[in-house]
Amino acid sequence: MRNLYFQISDFIIEPDKLTSLDVINKILVHLWIINDVRIGLGHYILVSKNSGYRSVGYEKSKKRSGFSEHCFLGGGAVDYTCQKKYIKKLVKLLRQSDYKRVCYYPKSNFIHCDLKGHEKQYFICAGKKWVRK
């Protein structure tokens, strides 16, 4: 039996609110992807407490559009981090994973991952812009 390093609740920003089964099923896809990455990394990975599943209402309460990938209207988005000494290996493993878009934020030491689109894309955040690599 494989080790499971993550729980569904790790991916939900508002754990006290009901979350639909549709969103839970999408979270499970992310959970299995990052669990395999965690095994490959051999070190812990943290799901950002601000950037897993966020409801449209939560997004709008923060003066956002409500159309973020983090709202899981599509495949969903999650941000991950780990100790700085492992971050480059984590980026490499995430790029090799089933995620379609991976964006590394070097100044903040986290990586945004989502399932949007059909082709794999890699970005580095420069200021407030994603620069495709």
Secondary structure elements and their pairing?
Blueprint (H helix, E strand, L loop, with lengths): L20 H21 L4 E2 L8 H6 L15 E5 L5 H10 L4 E5 L4 E5 L6 E6 L2 E4 L1
Parallel strand pairs: 3-5
Antiparallel strand pairs: 1-2, 2-4, 3-4, 5-6
Helix pairs in contact: 1-3
Walk me through this protein's architecture.
- The chain has one domain: Muramoyl-pentapeptide Carboxypeptidase, domain 2 (2-Layer Sandwich), CATH 3.30.1380.
- The chain is built from three helices and six strands, in the order H-E-H-E-H-E-E-E-E.
- The model has no long low-confidence stretch (mean pLDDT 94).
- The protein has helices at residues 21-41, 56-61, 87-96; strands at 46-47, 77-81, 101-105, 110-114, 121-126, 129-132.
- The protein has a six-stranded mixed sheet with strand order 1-2-4-3-5-6, with helices on one face.
- 28% of the residues lie in helices and 20% in strands.
- With 133 residues, the protein is an alpha+beta fold.
- It is globular and about 35 Å long.
- Helix 1 (21-41) packs across helix 3.
